[in-house]
Amino acid sequence: MLEVIATLDREVAIYLAGETIRVTVTVSNLSRGKQGLSEQLAWGSLQFICERTIGATSYSTSSTTSRPRPTTSVTKSAATVYSSPPNILFCELQLGPGQSKQFFCDQISFQIPLSRNGIPPTFRGHLVKYSNRVTVAVSHVQEHIKSAHLPIRIIPSVGLETKMSLPANPFLTSTITRPSVVETVMATVDDLTQARKSLAFALTHNSSTSRVALLTLPKKAYKLGDDVCGFLDFNGATTPCVQYSATIETEEHLIDADVEEGKKKMVKVHCQTAPICTFSPDSTFRLSIPLTATPTFSTDSVQLKWKIRFVFVVTEQAYDVHLNDDVASSAAPIDVPVESFSWSTDLLVLPCKPQNAALIDNTFPNRISMTV
Amino acid sequence: MFIPNDRASVLQLPKHEKDSPTADIRSIVANRERRLIAVATNDAVYIWLANPQLLLCSIGVIDQTFRETSGELKEVYWKPDSSSIAVTTNQNKILIYKLELRDDEQCYNFTDPADPYFQRNSPELFIKGSRPVAHLHPTIIINLADVPTCCVPSRDEFLVCLRNGFTHHVTWNGEILSSLSFRASAIPFSVDQLQSKSENVTSKSTYIIDSVYAPLLGGFAIVLSDGKGALLTSNDPNFAPNAILGVWAPNLKDATCCDVNHKFLLVLFGCQNGDVCAYNIDELNGSLVQSFRVAPKVTNGPDFTNRLGPVHKITALMNGYGFAAVWAPKKREETSTVADSSPLPRLVAVFTPFGAQSFCNLEGVIEDHLADNENDDMYTAIEWGPEGFQLWLGTKNDLMMQSFVRSASCSNPIMEHCDRAILMSDSQVLISAARDREAEACAPHSVWNHIDVAHEYLSSNWPIRYASTDRQYKHLVVAGDQGFAYCSLSNRRWKIFGNETQEKNLLVTGGVFIWNDDVVGVVGVSADTDKSHLSFYPISQRLDNRFASVIDLEHKSVMSALRDDVCAVFDITAQITLYKLTAHEETGRDAFTKVSADIVTVIRINEIVPHPTCIVSLQMTQLNLDQRGKLAPAFYSSIDTVLVNISGRLITLSLNEEGKLHQPMVIASYVEKMWHDRCIVSQSSLAQSLESTWKGHRRNGSNVSMHSVSTASEPSSPMSHSASSHLSNALWIACGAKGIKVWMPLVPGKRNLATQEMTFIAKRIMLPFELDIYPIVISAKDCLAMGVESQLQHVARASRSQSQMESITMYGLHRNSEVFVHHLLRQLLKRNLGVFALELAGACRSLPHFTHALELLLHGVLEEEATSSEPIPDPLLPRCVAFIHEFPEFLKTVAHCARKTELALWRTLFDVTGSPNALFEECLELKQLENAASFVIVLQNLETTEVSMDQAARLVKEALEEKEWTIAKEMVRFARSIGSEDIDALTPPPSAKTSLSRRPTVSSPSADSSTEFVINRFQAGAAGRLNKVRHSQSTDQKDPQRKDSIGSSKDKTALSRGLSGELSPQLTVNRLAARMTTILEEHAWHLLNNYWIVDLGTKLNNLFFVVVESFVGFFWAELQFDLPGLLETRRKQISLSPKSTNDKCYLVDDFALALTRLHAQFSWPYPVIGSQFVHQIEKKLGNIRVSQSTASLNGLLSSEPPEVTKPKVRRTEKTIVDLNGARPIRETDNETSEEDVEIQEAVLERVRGSASELVPILDRSPSTSSSMNPLFQSQAPATPSSCDSRSLAGDWQNTDFLVGEKSSRGNVQSSRQIELMLYLFSQTATIDWIFLLCLISRDERKLRQEINVSMVRRSGEKSFARIRFACSELGRWAVEKCCGYVALLQAFDAHLAVVAEQAGVADVKYVPDGEKRKNSIKSKAEGRGRKRVDSGGTKLNDSFTKPVMNGKGRERSRSADRAHKSVKRYDDVVCAEDALQKTNEDGCSIM
């Protein structure tokens, strides 16, 4: 019995594209004692693979068209988008009872190709799924290959295209550590997500005369984990708003040549609030972009857009004070006829530091083991 | 603990009259269930629904005559059944309104239009919850004799206190029960309820201004008009006048209002001076005892001393876990006409039950930004909404509702002792991240895992009351009004009851929990049968009663606790029942987990529980620390103690030897929260023997090992095991305003284990300490307290009128943390328990903030004892210093402490620690240069100038030796920043006082460019808190930055001085700086003499950096003087001393050694023969097998499989595994160019070793490019790589042809460094180094540029002759050692000859001093095993015509490279053929 354990260099398998994944593989012979057997492996290798799955479960139920789909399977059609060349860890490995051997990261590491021409981020959409993983495979002599997969969450990077300029003095460059991929990306993200100018939207319906609200959003670009704080001003509205909902959602478009499928878009709601604002002259909302989500990205086959969507429920008159003899008593209306209006605007969601994503996201363990 | 979140929403009150003035809110009162909120303005009453905030009905008093007779409305009082409200007026009237509620009818039914486009589409927009139709009807007007001041409503009647001193019982029908009326002046008051004599209120005019019913205290809490507070008790249920006894609240003279905390049995009084004081009842004599007195405080915001007026209103939370108060501004006195300060802004603060402030609305507020508030702008009314999730506030104009969050552990003992902060709002649960992951994240303190409770559940069961997770944070279960719901935290999928009637039927009364990872436990009541039960629902199944295991309970339970497999339930008869839970896996098709429960113990504690409401917390734990042998009597396996918190008194319940209950023991009072690791985990790692006895009972899942840290990380302390048990067994207690306490066991360490029989119950000690934050989690394993606070954040708002942005504020939740281990150490030291302090510290050694904690300990003690005005009989400082001395961090701690304390305290410190000079010496000895640098600053202030200068100089020398450039840099900077007049002024040892004024000691972190990136980001998150001394783990990262604080703080002054100094140069140099310069000079010579050019460059440039950075104008001259100046002197010396002894001239003596050192330092590969050249010959000579040598030339020796014979073969391969870079290469043309770019990044990870050896360097050459060489050759060799062409802007292809291609060059950075050094040397005509650098960079053009006639003139004939000699010397060396250089040297030599002729010095010869060279060989004995060919001035040509063949084919083949077309003097073809033939012969041997 041999146990093969692959461990990553960080606690949670979340990486930015462009970073290097360092894997340590430990092979140990589990048998102990005198009667333990010496075990032999022909070879072991590591490989990084990105797979795409098009067509999800929701698809098959909703598609009523009789058009033949490209695959017969309704469950899953996986295609390898990227695969790194296999890294041979060892050949002809022999381990005595209780013996174990480690293969360290500096020999076995991958740089995740940059997203531009490289691999898409890890994404679980309705229409398309991208899954990234490191596969560790070993084989006994004359036997089948045994492999285990360690899923990796990859967050797309921004800002790596622009190279950092070197400091003027060549001697100082050696003492100053160059910013890592994470630092470069985060510097770009910080720059992009800085609040520069608030955005104000005067929301009206029917005609421009019927004002509903004045919306202020501090910025358009956010990073994962940020809160979108907005302000709605109902002062001066001609149609009172009794309730509104603000939703952060992603829209998934297929960029397929297939027109019918290409039109299809799936919306996923990430965060929602629906406060009653019948008596409020203004309202603030806070919506957080989950750290587990995928930032804005697009590949050849899918585009993911982030949006903030509002639905305003408006009425003519929500509450009326009516006089009754000498006391002015009033009561809430039983029925309130309402109309709803929707509005949305795009947001740009940028990557966060992978260590931040690791704070919340526990779905990507950093090690995998198999017994052969 | 309750803190606000987000922003308060303003609620507009509809006006009943068009012309009525703005609504002046007088009173906000919630009904018993807190579903309805009654709001009274001066002329109207409104009934609001608490959630959603909708106005149900209102009634306005608009009739003018009525208003005149009845006056304005004041206060509202609810009849407990919510059917009526009473409203007092400011005239002699009380109005009673009937509230007609129709629960079966709903109002605010939003109806969508027919047009589907305008219909709502999201379920969140459909409000569910009950919205009863309500109407207010005026029913009764009660006429009174005087103005009513306050009322106390109860079921049948209400008490009305009048201004004339009378108190009447009035029924809700308006009848005054005159027989029960009494007068305040007639009430006998006493100090206690037993013996003391009672007295009546003297003044007849005294009346009750506020009163609250306090049933659990046995009466009413009242405030009298003269400012006294009291408790009215009576043994008569009807409160008959003759049976009333008043109990004074002692020392209370200025009360204004009061409220009662029922759970903690506290009477809260608000005072005229703004204080809130609380009283509890002494059980012995029934007197009132003050438990605390607090005032609102703001650490970062407007100062309200002299502005804080009386407490306007206090309101305690219904569940008792806090109270809130609002204040009025101080009344301006008539005399002070000067508008000295603006009136107090609106002020509201929230406190924990025992008075720790958890929130104040002015914290973090800049007063100027507050709107111009008119006088008397204040919160006029305050009330808590349901469960404390809302705080309703009224002002003169507005009604506001602020949402609040609370910690999930309130009234939920299952969530106490969590290692994460878990908060809950009315609809959300927030969980903090695992702390061990926070270190690397940015701004982790504001990252929360927001879990929104499923709308389907929440919409009809708002708000959530209980939230629990399991210890691994896998599942979350919440319970709202009815039923419960749970979700998996990994995928956020919620499960709710499929059957809504089952949900409606279940009322959770005692909490929910997750047991065993797969079962949800619920302690609740069935609504239909009113039966209490403990139910278990398997997580794997649908949420349905079909799968539930129900255990019937006797009584309604109000609280539950869980530890391992035991669940404790506290019920309304004050009975604690311990159930042992057992899971049974059902077999069969529809298998699910069934749970059975067996009663372990029943504990009746009704004698010590005044009322079941009074239970604050319930825990099962193990306090007995006995490790072996006899088991102490226990309720169940590892549970020997049940801890109950009854109204703030923490009581232990345990068994005696006979199995009877011990007398309950109060271990602490005023306890509002406690943490005890033992409550969730058993002593598994500590007591293994014990474990085996009950292992069988334990299930795997519910147990987390908390010992991982304490046992796994033990830096050198043999006692850490037992010491950590001090902490993990400690009981942490939060006492509100009274701070934190720890009840720590004093476990004797292993030291006397052998001798002592350890059958004892651990002795424990109670240590108090203070924290700046209010802890929500106390982590015993890393001695950190974590708190949460609401911080203001600004949100932009666009205003419609003026199109500009304003900002509004909302609250965000941030965690903060604080170290506290130093408090414990100090307390232990104070009590002469140094041994335990050592054990404790030993256990904490591995913590990242340990050094910081030591520093805090020293600093705290020093500050207290040095500033004490009276002599201290038994000073703690020596003990403390001795304690710290036990740790290797001693020097660092003292240094840092000194840097952070005032100069005036230094004497006190160093009197105890020993002189700073001695400490400095110690630092040097231990090579702790950073600490030494700190001490230099101390020395500079305490010692004579001479001493400090000497020491500073020593430090610089040491730093240079150790290549600690930054320290050297800082020291030089420090030296230079001292003005020369300072040095002179300091010549006599300065008294601490005088220098105090001059030298700032407060450190300001300097922006070190290398870490700036990280630091900035960290601070960005902590903005606004900078003035507080807070500590978190990350502070340690900042510490290294502090070392140069003085330097940076002086930059500015120095700079300004420097600017002026340009004009008056004598100011520019102080003695210390001059000395520094000398040292640097010497070191520079030293480096130069030893050929450490890179270090020289680094040093130079570090200093250069300093100079350029801050002292541009000032020290530019210094720089000029620095190295070029030195070299200039050398040049002169050379020309002066014809003998050219190397004593002071620092000439390159051993050129070969110098060259190899250059290679090593720049990690510059040695040249190899150009393979293109070889290829040409290959073509010429046809079938000669050269591939292997080519391969070897390309540096692929180690990785190339032997069967690859031709370079072309590799093209067809898909990938090559190259072990050097461990990166696979795809061999397509595009990829190649891409790889080419990537190579440079890889290379930039610089090879550090300066003493690298000759052969490995070959391998170290960029691997990928070398493997690409065959490809590259097929293209034009002139194709420059982007970087190399830039840096080596010469005709390198020319020399490349001579010595191989670009692949064997060093990286870009090295070449840039070489270039810079070359520039520097050429400035000063340091011809020998120019030659060497040109040689190493293989830059013939550069050589031509640099070494010409004028250079010869400048450097002198001697030097030039040396170069020529060196050239030939190296040529000989190269033949032997590095054939790649041969051709190059020939070319160089040719050039030198030409120059020599031009300059007319061709005949000048250099004869080296042979003996001296031997010496130098000896001194460089570490050398590279090079054999020295004795030269004696042999001609260069000879060496080539008779090349020394040493049999190694590889090197010989390289020598072929010397044949370059441009070098016409040599018979190239013959040499090459010769070499190739040799290769052919023994080519295999090179593999």
From TrEMBL, chain A:
<protein>
    <submittedName>
        <fullName>Uncharacterized protein</fullName>
    </submittedName>
</protein>
<dbReference type="Pfam" id="PF08737">
    <property type="entry name" value="Rgp1"/>
</dbReference>
<dbReference type="InterPro" id="IPR014848">
    <property type="entry name" value="Rgp1"/>
</dbReference>
TrEMBL record, chain B:
<feature type="domain" description="RIC1 C-terminal alpha solenoid region">
    <location>
        <begin position="822"/>
        <end position="982"/>
    </location>
</feature>
<dbReference type="GO" id="GO:0034066">
    <property type="term" value="C:Ric1-Rgp1 guanyl-nucleotide exchange factor complex"/>
</dbReference>
<protein>
    <recommendedName>
        <fullName>Protein RIC1 homolog</fullName>
    </recommendedName>
</protein>
<dbReference type="GO" id="GO:0006886">
    <property type="term" value="P:intracellular protein transport"/>
</dbReference>
<feature type="compositionally biased region" description="Basic and acidic residues">
    <location>
        <begin position="1413"/>
        <end position="1430"/>
    </location>
</feature>
<dbReference type="InterPro" id="IPR036322">
    <property type="entry name" value="WD40_repeat_dom_sf"/>
</dbReference>
<feature type="region of interest" description="Disordered">
    <location>
        <begin position="1260"/>
        <end position="1287"/>
    </location>
</feature>
<feature type="compositionally biased region" description="Polar residues">
    <location>
        <begin position="1261"/>
        <end position="1285"/>
    </location>
</feature>
<keyword id="KW-0472">Membrane</keyword>
<feature type="region of interest" description="Disordered">
    <location>
        <begin position="696"/>
        <end position="721"/>
    </location>
</feature>
<dbReference type="InterPro" id="IPR009771">
    <property type="entry name" value="RIC1_C"/>
</dbReference>
<dbReference type="Pfam" id="PF07064">
    <property type="entry name" value="RIC1"/>
</dbReference>
<dbReference type="GO" id="GO:0042147">
    <property type="term" value="P:retrograde transport, endosome to Golgi"/>
</dbReference>
<feature type="compositionally biased region" description="Basic and acidic residues">
    <location>
        <begin position="1448"/>
        <end position="1465"/>
    </location>
</feature>
<dbReference type="GO" id="GO:0000139">
    <property type="term" value="C:Golgi membrane"/>
</dbReference>
<dbReference type="GO" id="GO:0005829">
    <property type="term" value="C:cytosol"/>
</dbReference>
<feature type="region of interest" description="Disordered">
    <location>
        <begin position="1413"/>
        <end position="1465"/>
    </location>
</feature>
<feature type="region of interest" description="Disordered">
    <location>
        <begin position="983"/>
        <end position="1010"/>
    </location>
</feature>
<feature type="region of interest" description="Disordered">
    <location>
        <begin position="1026"/>
        <end position="1059"/>
    </location>
</feature>
<feature type="compositionally biased region" description="Polar residues">
    <location>
        <begin position="992"/>
        <end position="1010"/>
    </location>
</feature>
<feature type="compositionally biased region" description="Low complexity">
    <location>
        <begin position="707"/>
        <end position="721"/>
    </location>
</feature>
<dbReference type="Pfam" id="PF25440">
    <property type="entry name" value="Beta-prop_RIC1_2nd"/>
</dbReference>
